[in-house]
Amino acid sequence: MAEEAAAYPQRAIAVARERFLADDLPADQRTPPVREVIMASWERSRSRKIQPDQIEPIHDSSADLWPRLLRSAAPIVRDFSEGLGDAPMSVILTDDRGIVLERATSNAALERRLDDVRLAPGFSYSEESVGTNGIGTALEGREPAQVFGHEHYTEPLQELACAGVPIHNPVTGRLEGVVDVTCWRSEAGPLMGAMAQSVAARINAAMLQHSGVRETALLREYLRTSRRAGGGVIAVSSDVVMLNNAARQLLDPTDETAVLGAVTDAPPTKQVTLDVELPSGQCARLTCRPAWCEAGVAGSIVQVQITAASVAPRGPGGERRLLLPGVVGSGALWERCVHDVDHSFHTGEWLVLEGETGVGKLTLARAVHQRNNPQGHLRVLDCPQQVGPTVWLAELRDELDNRSGTLLLRHLSCLDPATAQIAAAILDDYNPTEPPWVVGTVDDRENDEPEREDLLRHFPRSVHVPPLRHHLEDMRELVPFLLVRLTHGDALRCSAEALRLLMRAEWPGNIAQLAEVLRDISSRRRSGLIAAEDLPPSCRATARRVLTPMEAIQRDAIVRALIDAAGSKSAAAQALGMSRATIYRKIRQYGIS
Questions:
Q1: What are the backbone angles phi and psi of residue 490, rounded to the nearest 5°?
Q2: Which domain CATH number covers 568?
Q3: 421 contacts 451 by C-beta, under 8 angstroms
Q4: CA–CA distance from 160 to each of 89, 99, 355, 372 (Å)?
Q5: pLDDT at 591
Q6: 10 Å Cβ neighbour count for 589?
Q7: What are the φ/ψ torsions at residue 446 (nearest 5 degrees)?
Q8: How far apart are CA 129 and CA 157, in angstroms?
Q9: Phi then psi dihedrals of residue 382, to 5 deg
Q10: CATH number for 365
């Protein structure tokens, strides 16, 4: 890779960069003299609004600057740097977010330059922070990356050359960080990449040795405690979560998430006792103690004891639950959504319900109408594709002019621009004496045309209906409710084991998908108890999650923070105690939209 980059003069790359920044680089010139990996990184840097003429790396004061990676890698990094003598070369170690953990440099001039550009412990060198560079580009591609001189997106880094190699946990395969070799641009050569690969290989070997010691110690202590305690026992480390059968019987998946979240916040080196109120309404006492090995703390052993049942949950802000006909759910996100829609009805404020397909937008709007105005007129106008734009627009005008009550406009995001413009004009001229309550539903507003925005501005408020995966605690009410509706009675019930499996699924089709699964089961089993083997293969396989429990906790916390912050990533990051660079990376990593 170094030979490939060296084949193109730096001056040619500098000119290409200037033309790129001026938006003047033709498509047929986006190969030589600029490598494909660099051009892709420049595109990402520009989309993230990185300033090309200055460098302002984000400093993460909350970062753990002594993680397990550093314990294994620090001696190797320093050893390698000392072997270089006074050579103008630095060895740098970062975590998986690009936060610099260690920097070893023997050359005074290079050390001063690295200080100037804040390539120092505590600063982020992810692409979100400083644009194209050996560390951030290696993290983005999950593969070795070398960046020379003018290939850097920001000018202050263009005197340097760097080669970054990702470090993966040899046991779990998880990305742990990057080791980077940096030198002056004039000193760069083909050996840089080989040097970085050599350091990474030695770090991986050290991590394998330490990981084996820690995981063996944690497993031994977990088994010993399970035999002696006889109750629910959980073993937790940064890479491993183990639950015995007693813990699985005590806790459903949402309770497990709450317990793991509480354990994560507990001091790792002390024995503590925590009392936690669980989403299921139970109260649990958690006794957490560290498991030690010769390398330090291997993880935490948690003994779980259910102590009591808590009071029935209330809605957000402590208000009493709002009961709607044909709607169930008591989770915080769902309750907040229900109260927001009900409030809009009482104020007469027109409303747009946003959310994924199948989350229950139409059902929720119908239920609010039936609760507050059961004798009133209710009309649902579906997407114009069903009846044609001309008929749809005529019916819209007739409903607005001649009806009160509630008007539900489904799938507004499917309107073609011309129909949306005419509908917006109808609303512009609308001056009712007794206006109906109008609710629109949209599945995805990211690709709205300006003409559609003209229509949506007539709806002063939007409420996001959460996907089922964000309020899985409501499955305990949803599943029995849907089974009663499907079987016209309570002859068919769901076992606790089957319910746990249903609650572990992601449900991309949301409540509609859950209803379809239950409908299929009820067509084959009309009474009795639904067991795990009655579930379709897709549900029975969901116990093997792509995300670890720790990652699922973090994903859900970020989703809730974004909802509470009305989508503001900066406000959500501040609420979670994260850096801006971290939350942007996590949003991409977990696919949060």
A1: -115, 30
A2: 1.10.10
A3: yes
A4: 10, 19, 47, 67
A5: 62
A6: 15
A7: -65, -30
A8: 13
A9: -85, 180
A10: 3.40.50.300
CB neighbours (10 Å) of residue 562?
Answer: 22
Question: Is 203 in the same domain as 76?
Answer: yes
Residues pairing with 309 in the sheet? 282
45 alpha carbon, distance to own chain's centre: 21
Identify the CA nearest to 108 among candidates 83, 87, 79, 132: 87
Q: How far apart are CA 161 and CA 269, in angstroms?
A: 41
Contact 232, 251 (CB under 8 A): yes
CA dihedral 147, 153, 156, 162 (to 10 degrees): -10
SS3 34: coil
Strands (E), 125-247: 145-148, 160-168, 175-184, 232-236, 241-243
Structure-block tokens of residue 328: 């169930």
Q: What is the pLDDT of residues 542-551, one digit of tens each?
A: 333 445 556 6
Q: Are 187 and 160 in contact (CB under 8 A)?
A: no
pLDDT tens column, 264-308: 777 888 899 988 887 766 788 999 999 988 777 888 999 998 886
478 plus 431 within the same structural domain: no
- Within 10 angstroms of residue 244's Cβ, the number of other Cβ atoms is 21
In a domain, residue 433? The reply is: yes
pTM of the model: 0.44
CA-based nearest residue to 365, from 331, 326, 401: 326
Start-end of H helices in 7-125: 10-21, 36-47, 68-83, 108-116
Residues in the chain: 593
Considering only CA atoms, which of 480, 468, 453 is closest in space to residue 504? 468
pLDDT reading at 148 higher than 90: yes
Same domain flag for 378 and 429: yes
Pairwise CA distance, residues 502 & 476, whole Å = 10
Nearest to 98 by CA among 585, 591, 590: 585
In this prediction, residue 514 carries a pLDDT of 92
> Mapping DSSP to helix (H, G, I), strand (E, B) and coil, where does residue 190 land?
coil
Confidence of residue 539 (pLDDT cuts 50, 70, 90): low
DSSP 63: -
Q: How many CB atoms lie within 10 A of CB 464?
A: 21
Tokens describing residue 487: 């079987």
Partnered with residue 329 across adjacent β-strands are: none
Whether 249 is in a domain gets the answer yes
The DSSP symbol for 386 reads: G
pLDDT per position as a tens digit, 79-134 = 888 888 788 999 999 988 899 998 998 889 999 999 999 999 889 999 999 999 99
pLDDT in tens, 453-493: 888 888 888 899 999 988 888 888 899 889 988 887 778 88
Report the alpha-carbon distance of residue 380 to residue 396 in Å, rounded.
Answer: 10
How many Å apart are CA 42 and CA 38, to the nearest integer? Answer: 6
Q: Residue 583 sits in which domain range?
A: 549-590
d(CA 569, CA 551): 18
| Average pLDDT, rounded, for the chain | 82
Q: Is 176 helix (H, G, I), strand (E, B) or coil?
A: strand
Question: Residue 169 gets which letter from DSSP?
Answer: -
